C-alpha cells in the first residue's frame, strides 16, 4: 500500500520515482548529545550531515517521515541569488551587503551540486531557468535585471528575452518577455533529501522519524527537547521545521507563515511536443507565482495553485489542469497522473528567517519559495556556527524580518485577505 503523508495532501510523482525511501525508527528513551535538531527536511538533514562529519554527536527528530513537508514535495527549482532580486536587496541594504548575500546564495548553488556529486546522489539535475512577465509593464524590469546582474553583480548567465524568443522557448504565447538563466537549473528534490539523510546516518548522526517534539526549553546553558517517548538533552538546538512548526516555538511561528502550494504531473508529453523544448524550468511574475518544468521523462510538472490557509483542497487536478490550459490550450484535456501539495514557509519581506529564539536555540526557515538551494546551505552554515564561525550565518540573522501583524488570533485571516488581494491584482 502506498504511503500517504499525514501532513501534506496527495501522493507526489517524486515519491513514485525516487527509488527506495528508507524508514528510520522512532525515538525511545532519553539521550544526551552535542546538538539536537528538530525537523527532518533539507535544513535539518544537511546540518546533521555536516555536524556528524565534523565529529559532533547529533540527534535529529522528525514528527513524520523525512520528505513529508516542503523539502520532499517542492518544485525543484534552484533559482539564483536570494528570493528578492539583488538590486532590491541593494536598495534596502546597500551594495556591499547585497553583493555578500548574492555571493552567499551562489555558493549555496555550487554547494548543492557539489554535495550531490561527491556523495553520489543522483538528483536528476537539468540546466536552465526562465523567469517570465505575465504583463507587459514588467518587461522593462526583466531587461534591466539582466544588465544589472552582468554589470554590477558579476553574473553573466542571465540574458533578456523579447516576446518572440520567450514564446519559442516556452511553447506558449501567454507571456510578454523575460530572462533566461543558464547558470542554474532544477532537480528531483526527494532524491536529494533521501541521499542527504543517508549521508548523515553514515556519518554517525542519530536520525529518528515519527517522533514529534512536544516542547523545547533552554535553562542554565542546556537545551531540552521533549518527545512523547523521551527527552533529548543537548548543548545546542537547531529548529528546522519551517512551515510545519505549529505552536512548538512561538517566535518562529510569529515570523513564518505556511502557504499551501500545489503541483500536478502530466503524462509524458512525447518527443514532438513544443512545450519547453530546451528543458528549462520556469517561474512567472505573478505574486501568486506559477512555476513549471519538464521532468527527465518528459512530464510537465506544473505548480501554481497557492492557498493562504491550511485547508487541504480536494480538487488539485482540476485547478492545475485549468492553469495549464491557460498557457498551453492544446493540453486542456491532458491526463494528470499525480496531484499533490505541501506548505511553504514565507516571511513578510520574503527573505529567510534565522534567529536565536532562546539561548543556544537557533531557528532557520521562511525561505519563501527559494528553499531548495538555501535550506541545504543554511544547514551547512549552522554546522559552521556550532564549530565557532557564526559570521556567514550572521549575514542572514541580521536581515530585517518583522513578525506578521495581528498576533496568533488574527494573522492568518489578515494574511489571507492581503494575499488574495495580490492574487486579484495578478489578474488585473
TrEMBL record:
InterPro entries on file: FAD-dep_OxRdtase (IPR006076), FAD/NAD-bd_sf (IPR036188)
- Where does this protein have coiled-coil stretches? none
Instruction: Extract the GO molecular function terms from the UniProt entry.
Output: oxidoreductase activity
A GO CC annotation given for this chain: cytoplasm
Transmembrane segment boundaries: none
All copies of domain FAD dependent oxidoreductase, residue ranges: 34-384
Which Gene3D superfamilies does the entry mention? D-Amino Acid Oxidase, subunit A, domain 2, FAD/NAD(P)-binding domain
Provide the alphabetized UniProt keywords. Oxidoreductase
Tagged with keyword Transmembrane helix: no
- Protein known as: FAD-dependent oxidoreductase
Organism, per UniProt? Mesorhizobium helmanticense
The root-end lineage is: Bacteria, Pseudomonadati, Pseudomonadota, Alphaproteobacteria, Hyphomicrobiales
Amino acid at each position: 500500500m502506498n504511503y500517504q503523508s499525514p501532513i501534506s495532501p496527495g501522493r507526489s510523482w517524486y515519491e513514485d520515482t525516487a527509488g527506495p525511501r528508507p524508514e528510520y525508527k522512532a525515538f525511545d528513551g532519553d539521550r544526551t548529545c552535542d546538538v539536537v535538531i528538530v525537523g527532518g527536511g533539507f535544513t535539518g538533514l544537511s546540518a546533521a550531515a555536516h555536524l556528524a562529519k565534523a565529529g559532533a554527536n547529533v540527534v535529529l527528530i522528525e514528527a513524520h517521515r523525512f520528505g513529508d513537508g516542503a523539502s520532499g514535495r517542492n518544485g525543484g527549482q534552484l533559482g539564483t541569488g536570494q528570493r528578492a532580486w539583488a538590486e532590491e536587496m541593494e536598495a534596502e541594504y546597500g551594495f556591499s551587503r547585497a553583493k555578500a548575500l548574492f555571493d552567499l546564495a551562489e555558493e549555496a548553488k555550487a554547494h548543492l551540486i557539489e554535495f550531490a556529486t561527491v556523495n553520489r546522489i543522483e538528483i536528476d539535475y537539468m540546466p536552465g531557468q526562465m523567469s517570465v512577465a505575465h504583463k507587459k509593464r514588467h518587461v522593462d524590469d526583466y531587461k534591466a535585471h539582466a544588465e544589472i546582474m552582468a554589470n554590477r553583480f558579476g553574473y553573466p548567465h542571465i540574458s533578456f528575452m523579447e516576446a518572440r524568443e520567450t514564446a519559442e522557448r516556452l511553447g506558449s504565447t501567454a507571456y510578454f518577455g523575460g530572462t533566461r538563466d543558464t547558470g542554474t537549473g532544477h532537480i528531483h528534490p526527494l532524491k536529494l533529501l533521501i541521499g542527504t539523510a543517508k549521508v548523515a546516518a553514515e556519518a554517525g548522526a542519530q536520525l529518528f522519524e515519527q517522533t514529534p517534539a512536544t516542547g523545547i526549553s533552554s535553562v542554565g546553558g542546556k537545551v531540552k527537547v521533549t518527545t512523547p517517548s523521551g527527552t533529548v538533552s543537548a548543548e545546542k538546538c537547531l529548529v528546522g521545521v519551517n512551515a510545519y512548526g505549529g505552536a512548538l516555538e512561538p517566535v518562529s511561528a510569529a515570523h513564518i507563515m505556511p502557504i499551501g502550494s500545489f503541483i500536478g504531473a502530466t503524462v509524458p508529453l512525447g518527443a514532438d511536443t513544443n512545450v519547453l523544448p530546451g528543458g528549462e524550468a520556469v517561474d512567472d511574475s505573478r505574486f501568486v507565482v506559477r512555476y513549471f518544468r519538464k521532468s527527465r521523462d518528459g512530464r510537465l510538472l506544473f505548480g501554481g495553485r497557492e492557498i493562504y490557509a491550511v485547508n487541504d483542497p480536494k480538487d488539485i487536478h482540476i485547478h492545475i489542469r485549468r492553469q495549464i490550459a491557460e498557457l498551453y490550450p492544446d493540453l486542456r484535456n491532458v491526463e494528470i497522473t499525480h496531484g499533490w501539495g505541501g506548505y511553504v514557509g514565507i516571511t513578510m519581506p520574503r527573505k529567510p528567517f534565522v534567529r536565536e529564539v532562546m539561548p543556544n536555540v537557533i531557528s532557520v526557515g521562511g525561505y519563501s519559495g527559494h528553499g531548495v538551494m538555501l535550506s541545504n546551505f543554511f544547514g551547512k552554515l549552522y554546522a559552521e556556527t556550532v564549530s565557532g564561525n557564526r559570521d556567514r550565518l550572521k549575514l542572514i540573522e541580521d536581515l530585517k524580518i518583522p513578525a506578521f501583524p495581528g498576533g496568533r488570533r488574527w494573522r492568518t485571516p489578515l494574511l489571507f485577505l492581503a494575499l488574495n488581494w495580490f492574487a486579484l491584482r495578478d489578474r488585473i
